[in-house]
Specification:
Length: 331
């Protein structure tokens, strides 16, 4: 006896439902990717810290893990030691590692605008780079972009680190400046903004980008990882770009989430100002044409030449040896 048409349809629907149930009950398997940062979890990287809320990396099948650091050099050490898959680092630290023979690739330009500066109280009368000679200058750490960019700035006036005293002061290094422990301090635009909010007063600011607008931070991977894990890295960069675009379009939401996720995020108003500054530094005419993360290879080569000129690098490093653009979301 054959089942009726209705019962056959009912049976087919039931079988389809049963086939679907195991799939809906399964837990999504995520591939773990660890990114070594140059900093602790601070508000300017809220687009990454908000992963539990927004799920940009999960959407790409990835479990995102942020490994804090104390400077770009620290991020690279964590990458090279195998503790991380990607490093969020500064070009100066990258160049130094390449000069030592490390095999690395830049795969994404996080901040194509140079955000570094050297700040002094007006009472110190440090108006030109040449006035830094003989002065005590604070940096975040000896492995940070603040030190690397201080070297760039000093070189423009024919000076080097031997002409000044470099003092590691930690991330919040405007307190030592205000207390007279240093005569000037190398910092970033966001650091300066927060310092002003905390009563820094009248200052002279020398912006590094007026001399060399080299990217502030880039994403770097090991060469072997670049060669072997391209599909995974493409998904990672897509998630990173999506998170950055979200923070650009929704800075107010990001500022609210930073209160929960960033160690310096207690003030939503301050978070918003920091996020706006960092959003601005993540965009350039090149990224507007080619999309987030676009790498200015010519500027990278200029950076190598500048670092070679002031003696940090022992050899020229062709940009083709360390830049790869084929994994970017726009490609």
């Amino acid at each position: 006896m054959f089942p009726s048409l209705l019962s056959r349809r009912t049976l087919a629907a039931a079988l389809a439902l049963c086939a679907a149930l195991p799939l809906t009950g399964q837990t999504q398997t995520l591939e773990r990717v660890v990114m070594a940062g140059w900093s602790k979890p601070i508000s300017e990287i809220t687009h990454l810290l908000a992963e539990p809320d927004k799920g940009f990396f999960k959407a790409q099948g990835l479990e995102f893990v942020y490994l804090p650091g104390a400077g770009g050099g620290d991020a690279l050490r964590n990458l090279l030691s195998g503790q991380a898959d990607v490093a969020f680092t500064d070009p100066g630290s990258l160049f130094a590692a390449l000069d030592k023979g490390e095999k690395l690739r830049v795969v994404y330009d996080v901040y194509p605008q140079n955000v570094f500066n050297v700040v002094s109280l007006k009472s110190q009368n440090i108006a030109r780079v040449a006035d830094l000679k003989g002065k005590r200058i604070g940096v975040y750490s000896l492995s940070s972009g603040t030190r690397q960019n201080l070297q760039v700035l000093l070189h423009t006036a024919g000076l080097s680190e031997q002409d000044v005293t470099v003092v590691p002061t930690g991330l919040l290094n405007f307190a030592p400046l205000m207390q007279g422990q240093v005569d000037a301090t190398a910092a970033t635009d966001t650091g300066l903004m927060v310092g002003r909010q905390r009563g820094l007063g009248d200052v002279n600011v020398m912006e590094v980008r007026q001399h060399l607008n080299l990217s502030s931070d880039v994403l770097v991977v090991r060469e072997d990882s670049y060669q072997k894990n391209k599909p995974l890295l493409r998904r990672f960069l897509k998630a990173f770009a999506d998170s950055a675009v979200w923070m650009q379009r929704q800075p107010e939401e990001a500022a609210r989430l930073a209160v929960r996720h960033a160690i310096d995020g207690q003030s939503e108003a301050t978070n918003l100002e920091v996020i706006k500054l960092r959003n601005a530094s993540s965009m350039s005419p090149l990224t507007q044409r080619q999309g987030p993360g676009a790498i200015d290879t010519a500027m990278m080569q200029r950076g190598v030449q500048a670092y070679r000129a002031f003696g940090v690098l022992s050899r020229d490093i062709p940009v083709a040896d360390f830049v790869a653009t084929d994994l970017l979301p726009g490609k």
